[in-house]
Amino acid sequence: MKLTTSLEKIKGVGPKTAAALSAAGLVTVEDALNFLPRAYDDYSTAVKIADLQPGKVTVRARCESVSTRIVRRGLRLTTATLADDSGKVKAIWFNQPYRETQLKNADEFLFSGEFGMSRNQYQIANPSVEQAREVAAADNSPSSAIVPVYRAVKNVRPKSVLDMMKQLRPFMDFLPETLPPELVSRQKLSSRAEAVRMLHAPSSRDDITRGRERLAFEELFEMLLAAAYNKYEQTKLKGWQIPFDQPTVKKFVEQLPFQLTGAQKRAAWQILQDFEQPHPMNRLLQGDVGSGKTAVAALAAAQAAQAGFQTAFMAPTEILATQHAETLSQLLAPLGVTVALLTGSVKGQARRQLLDQLAAGKIDVVVGTHALIQEKVAYHKLGFAVIDEQHRFGVKQRQALLDKSDRLPHLLSMTATPIPRSLALTLYGELEISVLNELPANRKPIVTKIWSPTSLPKLYETIDAELNTGRQAYIICPLIDDNPDNDKASVEAEFNHLAKSVFRHRQVGLLHGKLSPEEKDSVMRRFAAGEINILVSTTVVEVGVNVPNATVMLIKNADQFGLSQLHQLRGRVGRGNHQSYCHLLMTGHDKPSQRLREIEQSQDGFYLAEVDLKLRGPGEIYGRAQHGALNLQIATLADTKLIARAQEEATAFVQSGTDLLQYTHLARAVAGYQRLTTLN
């Protein structure tokens, strides 16, 4: 028996089934063994129909009636009435007409599915079905009560997949160990073969827990080991050593118009220590909106300038670059540090003059967009690079900036998205991380309130009253789907309604993803200048744009957003000295969701990100593209303890100098993650 054996040679798998399995990526025995259950039906927990509660349920019942009808083209609905001695309940299946035949062939069945209210009646939706006597007799073991549920394979019945997996159980003993034996022993993990067997053929819930723990640990260990190797390789690179100069730091801090928070001081000290190392810094500075990331970067730029090095500060948009240039000029001018702005709008003689000064070393800090990495841009001595909102830039763009120097400059990436530690370790394992988790002492909390649709007229009156004091407002429309054209239509309809009726006495602006970069920039500039009273926008409202006079935000259909996104949007207000407000308008009249209650009660972005991770997963926190790079099948990023264990083992493995190539599977997995790394 071999793991490379074709599934077509397995008893019960005919040519048609084999072809369908192949189309789903299941060709060999090993492929099938790695096709792990997505859930389990536990028939040992069956309850009486009268005792059913909403959620996943299992009942033992007979089928009193069953029928199938065509609802519309491509949709067949099978309906059955289930009964036991306590009562009756309806069950429905979508596009599973074979259930009608199945339910006529035995007296009693076990049904396992989601129980809940639909169209004013309770029902069990798409339950799995097992003959009661078969479950009791199968294998003559307790494992028969826990039946794996696999992801649907087109043109293959679920029972055929189950039967095939039973035939493959003898092969499980041939699965090789993929982790170092001493690590498996130290972490008290099951062997890989044991884990796979426990997941495909569990005898208890404890088997499922132990099997998942082993395979989840392996996934996380592979990912974090790749990050640990990346971090180790970073220490071998030659960088600029920038010595610590106490007078410069002291002078910078003393002339600030505000007090640095404890978190800012810690982050700045970490950066200045990195500067003194012979290898280049690779650090992520993450902090909530308004936590003072720019001030920390400015202090580091002052240190670099004192030592004769230039700083390049790259931002994703022109308006944000302009704001950064203004802020940095104010902070650095007292120290004699020169700041210049280089964007696509700087043209002709002014551009040529700026580039000449930059190449001659007459400019200490240059702030800009992608213009900073264009071929004609040359630096005199680039020692420090800052990338704001780093997830907006691709690896090639970041690398192009780093390539502008004879040696790799120190790199500081900044993000205003609070990231839970468990997620940060997996996404940014190759970076050192500094966290700004304190807001300035004078910052007023944003008053957040949840509204029902019936209160919309009163809400508009509340917003108008705030505008009467000279303030400005954002009105955010939700994403409809993944089609930008639909989002455009939705926000334009809202804009026309508000501009022509509710707020016809105000200047109303429009912002959405289908506008050109120039149009977006123009709208944001007019809003920042106070020429627009109300900005109606989709979620493309620019990250980091600072409009201190904007004190009101209305988020429509707020229950459709993730917590992290709501918090990011709310961070567009509360940037000045005035009291700010965030109004969350629900879609319907139901009670507010847990997400809305959480954001109403908390202003802590890191706490909300942790809650969001548990509620919705990492995709909402970091975006779809980067989430895909995680490639996790079993592990969950909410399991912070398992991540901590895997990180400790990954660090120890690299430090031990163990030859990775002796573990073929592990080496292949690490290489794959290194190709996917988000920062290098």
Describe the structure.
- This protein has 680 residues and is of the alpha/beta class.
- It has 5 domains: 1-38 and 158-174; 41-149, Nucleic acid-binding proteins (OB fold (Dihydrolipoamide Acetyltransferase, E2P)); 179-239 and 606-680, no CATH class; 246-276 and 291-415, Rossmann fold (3-Layer(aba) Sandwich); 447-602, Rossmann fold, CATH 3.40.50.
- Helices cover 40% and strands 19% of the residues.
- It is built from 25 helices and 20 strands.
- The strands form 4 sheets. It has a 7-stranded parallel β-sheet, with helices on both faces. A 6-stranded parallel β-sheet has the order 15-20-19-16-18-17, sandwiched between helices.
- Helix 8 packs across helix 25, helix 9 packs antiparallel against helix 11 (293-306) and helix 19 (563-570) runs antiparallel to helix 21 (605-616).
- The protein is globular.
- 40% of the residues are buried.
Write the layout of secondary structure elements.
Blueprint: H1 15-23, H2 29-33, E1 39-42, E2 55-72, E3 75-84, E4 87-94, H3 98-102, E5 109-118, E6 121-131, H4 132-137, E7 146-149, H5 158-167, H6 181-186, H7 192-200, H8 205-234, H9 246-254, H10 262-275, E8 282-287, H11 293-306, E9 310-314, H12 318-332, E10 339-342, H13 348-360, E11 365-368, E12 382-388, H14 395-402, E13 410-415, H15 421-427, E14 432-436, E15 447-451, H16 456-468, E16 472-476, H17 484-502, E17 508-511, H18 517-528, E18 534-537, E19 550-555, H19 563-570, E20 581-585, H20 594-601, H21 605-616, H22 619-622, H23 624-630, H24 640-656, H25 664-676
Parallel strand pairs: 4-6, 8-13, 8-14, 9-11, 9-12, 10-11, 12-13, 15-20, 16-18, 16-19, 17-18, 19-20
Antiparallel strand pairs: 1-7, 2-3, 2-5, 3-4, 5-6
Helix pairs in contact: 7-8, 8-24, 8-25, 9-11, 10-11, 11-12, 15-24, 19-21
